[in-house]
Amino acid sequence: MDEINKIFEEVKGQGRNVLTYEESRKVMELAGVPLNKIEVGKNLDECIAKANEIGYPVVLKVISEDIIHKTEAGGVKVGIKSDSELKKAYEEMMESVTTYHPGAKIDGFSIEEMVSGVEVLVGQTTDPQFGKMIAFGIGGIFVEVYKDVSFRLIPISENDVEEMYCEIKGRKMLEGFRGMPALKMNDLKSLLLNLSKLVEIHPEIKEMDLNPVMVTKDGLKAIDARIILE
Ligand SMILES: Nc1ncnc2c1ncn2[C@@H]1O[C@H](COP(=O)(O)OP(=O)(O)O)[C@@H](O)[C@H]1O
Ligand SMILES: [Mg+2]
């Protein structure tokens, strides 16, 4: 049994169908998805130690099964530049997360390398009529505003990826807009084909998303991951 199956079996064995942030990231990594570097801490002291390992600036994120949209709960703080800023961010986060979701089970905190670039969205959904599809589009706040996302049935081809890219209305933002890093077609092909393959081999995946994947000057890096099983 491969490592991805092992993770899925464990999740199902615990009566869950939603993978944790760390489990989702692990599966994505095994599937060949490039991710930013993270460390996990259980309390403030551990978070400070991990932040110093990674090197400031860092991002702090809450890890909790009860919190799906971390930003909404005040569970994401970016651009933390020192131990004292981290302490303040941690305390504010504990406060807002417990206010937003009283009794939420907090599993820990992710301390992350800061990544800058243009945000795109990559994922997979199941259409009740057509089946499993790969999604690609503009990420970040533009997801809700423009719904600028293109879909293709799995398995997808390199040609599908080129078409999906051309269908994005805001693709100008991905072509080196205002000195921002440009998206390389080969990076996008390898990411989307890897995800398509992942779902083909593991049909028990119902839904997954990498929102956002950051288009950086050194290529793509996913900075959020979520996987839901059937
Ligand atoms: N490592 C990171 N580096 C830079 N920006 C980040 C990082 N992690 C998160 N962000 C920013 O915070 C936003 C929300 O973070 P994310 O992990 O996607 O949480 P959620 O989608 O659950 O609210 C991202 O869209 C991105 O703008
Ligand atoms: Mg996200």
From TrEMBL:
Listed GO MF terms:
ATP binding; ligase activity; metal ion binding
Cite the ATP-grasp domain residue spans from the record: 25-61
* Keywords per UniProt: ATP-binding, Ligase, Nucleotide-binding
Q: Read off the InterPro entries from this record.
A: Acyl-CoA_Synth/Transferase, ATP-grasp, ATP_grasp_subdomain_1
Task: Output the Pfam families linked to this UniProt entry.
Answer: ATP-grasp_5
Taxonomically, what lineage is the organism? Archaea, Promethearchaeati, Candidatus Heimdallarchaeota, Candidatus Heimdallarchaeia (ex Rinke et al. 2021) (nom. nud.), Candidatus Heimdallarchaeales
Which organism does this record belong to? Candidatus Heimdallarchaeum endolithica
- Protein name (record): Acetate--CoA ligase family protein
Tree of life domain:
Archaea
